[in-house]
Amino acid sequence: MARDKKLARRLAGIAFVGAFLGQAQAAEAIFRGLRVLQPGNPNVDLGLAMVHTLAGSPQEGLAVVERAAALGADAGLAAVCAGVMLREAGHRAAANRTLALALAQGNGEPGTGASETIAQDVLRELTTVIRG
């Protein structure tokens, strides 16, 4: 079982590299295969959602993040993914709110200036990575 998890992580890494290199279809195929191998693993869906976003389909990615959240994905990680996708879909204010709330869950009150600044910094870094 541990061997299967290690292989799944390697395949996910390969899929992300492929997605960053413009091979979104191949990356999507890998994550869909991982869904078969690990049904109910929310992290597989989060990976697939990011691949959709890298391929220029953030709305499709958002739908997959919702599925991952229903499967029990880490709420903070799912919120960060959703924030990136909202930003890429052109919903900047919603993205900033989503990221600020995700960050505030662990350290402070929602809507505080510090959380919003951190959320904007995270968003800027992730957007730079996505857009190359």
* Number of domain units: 1
| Average of per-residue pLDDT values | 81
How far the N terminus sits from the C terminus, by CA atoms, comes to 36 Å
CATH topology: Serine Threonine Protein Phosphatase 5, Tetratricopeptide repeat
The number of distinct β-strands equals: 0
- Spatial shape: globular
Integer-rounded radius of gyration: 15 Å
Beta-strand share of residues: under 5%
Q: List low-pLDDT spans.
A: 108-115
Give the CATH class. Mainly Alpha
SS summary, helix count: 7
In this structure, how is the largest beta sheet organized?
none
At the fourth level of CATH, the homologous superfamily is Tetratricopeptide repeat domain
Structural class: mainly alpha
CATH architecture, please?
Answer: Alpha Horseshoe
Strand/helix succession: HHHHHHH
Measured as a percent range, the helix fraction is over 70%
Task: Describe what you observe in this structure.
The protein is mostly helical and 132 residues long. It has a single domain, classed as Serine Threonine Protein Phosphatase 5, Tetratricopeptide repeat, CATH 1.25.40. The chain is built from seven helices and no strands. The longest helix has 19 residues. It is globular, with a radius of gyration of 15 Å. About 6% of the residues have low confidence.
In short:
Helix content is 80%, strand content 0%. It is built from 7 helices and no strands. Helix 2 (24-37) packs antiparallel against helix 3, helix 3 (42-54) packs antiparallel against helix 4 (58-70) and helix 4 (58-70) runs antiparallel to helix 5 (75-88).
